[in-house]
Amino acid sequence: MCFSAQADLVTGVAVGVVGVDALRHVSSRRELPLASLPMLFAAHQLIETFVWWGLDGHVAWSVARAAVYVYLVIAFVLPVVVPLWVLAVEPSPRHREVMTLCVGVGVGVTAVLLVGLARGPVNAQDAGHRIAYHIGGSPGVALLVLYVVATCGALLASSSRPIALFGIANLAAVTVLAVLTTGNIASLWCAWAAVSSVAIAWHLRNLHGRARLARATVGAGAGGGSDWGSATGGSR
Question: By C-alpha distance, which of 79, 72, 3 is closest to 64?
Fold first, then answer.
């Protein structure tokens, strides 16, 4: 969610570039879901561009309405997607148990939100510097709190220090942005999506670098061993 069509478009493209970089630095298959998250954020921003264009009359409303539904579906599945993808890279069984609970909470939240989306009515309107989305039976405070628990809880439960620290930053950012949004101030969720994507790419770059160093160290050790064997064999 951003404050204009242009901001959504620029952010979406920029985050997409970061997403490509994140995918390039995947060291194992279990890192692939986490590395794909920036691409999901990029798609989310680009889809909202069509909602803006529809509200401004630049594209047919049928196109914009379809974009509204796709945009909301992505937003509503994040409470399941985020903990699942963080769970995929978590090695600690104890921490995985907590993340599994977050997944369960996320499944419940997503189910409620998707049912509301299916029942409708669904509407989007220009609220100044943001788009206000409305669905039938707007989610209450309890559901919003559980949404945050599912998405931020898994990050906070990670045994990886960088991911846990990002979880703390994410919780603080979500709180501030939610307050700004309710105060009818320009929406900056897209900026946080960009920051989050850069953090994910940076984390994967570090993991990739350590993996390459480990392989190089093992290779050097193996090579040194064979040279020593040749030397000792030749001396016999």
Answer: 72
